[in-house]
Amino acid sequence: SMFVDCSSLTSLDLSSFNTLNVTKMASMFYNCSSLISLDLSNFNISSVTSMWQMFYDCSSLTSLDLSSFNTANVTEIYNTFSGCSKLITTINIMNTNITNYTGVFSGAATDPNAKITVNYIAALDTIAEGESQSLIDKIIATKSSNSNIVKGKQL
Fold it and tell me: Do 109 and 87 meet the contact criterion of CB atoms below 8 Å apart?
């Protein structure tokens, strides 16, 4: 919750932050509704287990480089991008043990120019016995009806 409710914050460069031992990034940028520029290019999230509401209501954020994000240990992603209506990004989902993904993309990428691409590991695209959808399809299905959330490539 480091920057929670910093609704007047417009730009933030965290490229020099050492995040190697951080395990929870929940609500880190919650309600940073004026944030336009956010540099997380060197974030090491390999120890992170919780990203719930991390970018919740970052409604002015248009671009976010998450290419360095290793989500192999992340299990909680609910509401991560909820309300990020203008966002253009790609996220790599790399853990089959995600326990809570409610509303991950609710209200996300609803602006006509916005788009979130979701790349995934092969195991996430398997339909478990008794299920009708794969976990990656269930995660993407948390989007709003007018969200531009697309299934990307298998990693």
Answer: yes
